[in-house]
């Protein structure tokens, strides 16, 4: 019986569980997770696996143990094969490898394509195994950690739950490796600045991002209606508890009313490719509805972007207002900004054309 009422879940497995010694893959900690995946599937729950560990798994093949980017990328390329093969051996059903970069998710058409492929694989009973395509990433196209990636995958696959399996019970009010009296937070109903303050970086030599990226992932997921857990993947009991509908770690409650699909994607999945700077007096008329930025408000432009790209709308004093899709290129808006500057407060370009945005997420359309 499915006591947890999930239909589709994403399980994220951290490097420490796959390659604890950075000496190839070990199935030691993967067996209980594989068994959990099998038991979920037997209950009719579809599963997507987001697996880290390619860098850690490939590390033993290289004499150069430095953390140079090019060596890490080579480790990832070599370790990825071993990591997927190790998982695949644990199942008597087929798995499929999906390697993604942020660019694949940040462009709407590609995001939908990824989403459709996940759907097709799941409906065919194949287990998707997702990782970041570390070998081809650069700073401008990488997600950078698999916690955030797993939340994006949970969104793209319309999952009900995201289970982040780590090397620790869950979120503590301070990093327990540095504070012996740290207390486990079992339930989080709102991800506030206080929650972020509790979360530190990774302290192991295999993990990336630590608790901070897990909180970011939880924020992305819960605002899409995805219940999120951080659990200790070393403990078999975590998985037994999950299947009994219990909470073995930290549970983040989903929004009662998730964000609109497109708003969520702009806010939580897209990458900012430039900035439109408006005057300090500018404010959004409404946090909920579509807002208007007139061309007369534009005082500066940062970066190179094209129509349709996602930009940050901010004031000249640095106040972040919204993430928005621009209908104009940086080139054209730079001209607009210069014209506004030349006539001081009397812009040559009136608000005959407008950019629309909605708070922090924003679609920008020409009205
Ligand atoms: N408040 C906190 N609660 C729990 N762990 C924390 C906290 N702050 C930082 N951490 C660190 O985050 C680590 C887990 O993240 P990470 O090493 O990236 O693991 P993974 O490989 O599973 O992603 C913990 O082992 C711990 O050192
Ligand atoms: N993509 C990288 C993992 C990056 C990452 O986020 O690692 P982790 O913090 O262990 O989940 C790899 O496969 O090595």
UniProtKB/TrEMBL annotation:
It comes from Thalassotalea marina. HAMAP family: ProB (MF_00456). Pfam families: AA_kinase (PF00696). Belongs to the glutamate 5-kinase family. GO terms for cellular component: cytosol. GO terms for biological process: L-proline biosynthetic process. GO terms for molecular function: ATP binding; glutamate 5-kinase activity; RNA binding. ATP binds at residues 12, 166-167, 208-214. It catalyses: L-glutamate + ATP = L-glutamyl 5-phosphate + ADP. Residues 7-232 form the Aspartate/glutamate/uridylate kinase domain. It is an enzyme of class 2 (transferase). This is Glutamate 5-kinase. Its EC number is 2.7.2.11. It is found in: Cytoplasm. Its main location: cytoplasm. Pathway: Amino-acid biosynthesis; L-proline biosynthesis; L-glutamate 5-semialdehyde from L-glutamate: step 1/2. The keyword Ligase does not apply. Keywords: Amino-acid biosynthesis, ATP-binding, Cytoplasm, Kinase, Nucleotide-binding, Proline biosynthesis, Transferase. Substrate binds at residues 52, 134, 146. NCBIfam families: proB. The lineage of its organism: Bacteria, Pseudomonadati, Pseudomonadota, Gammaproteobacteria, Alteromonadales. Catalyzes the transfer of a phosphate group to glutamate to form L-glutamate 5-phosphate. The keyword Signal does not apply.
């Amino acid at each position: 019986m499915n006591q947890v009422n999930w239909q589709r879940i994403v399980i994220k497995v951290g490097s420490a569980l796959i390659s604890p010694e950075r000496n190839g893959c070990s199935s030691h900690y993967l067996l209980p997770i594989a068994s959990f995946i099998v038991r979920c599937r037997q209950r009719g729950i579809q599963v997507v696996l987001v697996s880290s560990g390619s860098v850690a798994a490939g590390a033993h093949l290289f004499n150069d143990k430095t953390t140079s980017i090019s060596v890490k990328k080579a480790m990832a390329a070599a370790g990825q094969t071993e990591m997927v093969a190790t998982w695949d051996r644990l199942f008597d059903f087929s798995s499929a490898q999906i390697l993604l970069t942020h660019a694949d998710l940040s462009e709407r058409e590609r995001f939908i394509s990824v989403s459709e492929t996940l759907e097709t694989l799941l409906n065919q009973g194949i287990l998707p195994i997702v990782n970041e395509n570390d070998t081809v990433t650069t700073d401008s196209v990488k997600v950078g950690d698999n916690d955030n990636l797993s939340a994006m995958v949970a969104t793209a696959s319309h999952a009900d739950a995201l289970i982040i399996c780590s090397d620790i019970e869950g979120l503590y009010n301070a990093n327990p490796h540095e504070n012996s009296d740290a207390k486990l937070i079992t339930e989080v109903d709102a991800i506030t600045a206080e929650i972020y303050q509790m979360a530190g970086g990774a302290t192991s030599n295999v993990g990336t991002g630590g608790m901070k990226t897990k909180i970011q992932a939880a924020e992305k997921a819960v605002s899409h209606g995805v219940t999120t857990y951080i659990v200790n993947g070393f403990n078999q009991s975590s998985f037994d508890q999950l299947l009994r509908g219990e909470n073995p770690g930290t549970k983040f409650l989903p929004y009662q009313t998730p964000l609109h699909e497109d708003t969520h994607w702009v806010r939580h999945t897209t990458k900012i490719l430039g900035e439109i700077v408006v005057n300090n007096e500018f404010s959004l008329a409404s946090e909920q509805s579509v807002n208007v930025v007139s061309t007369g408000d534009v005082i500066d432009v940062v970066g190179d972007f094209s129509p349709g790209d996602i930009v940050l709308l901010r004031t000249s004093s640095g106040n972040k207002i919204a993430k928005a899709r621009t209908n104009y290129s940086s080139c054209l808006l730079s001209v607009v900004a210069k014209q506004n500057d030349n006539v001081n407060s009397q812009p040559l370009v009136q608000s005959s054309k407008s950019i629309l945005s909605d708070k922090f997420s924003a679609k920008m359309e020409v009205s």
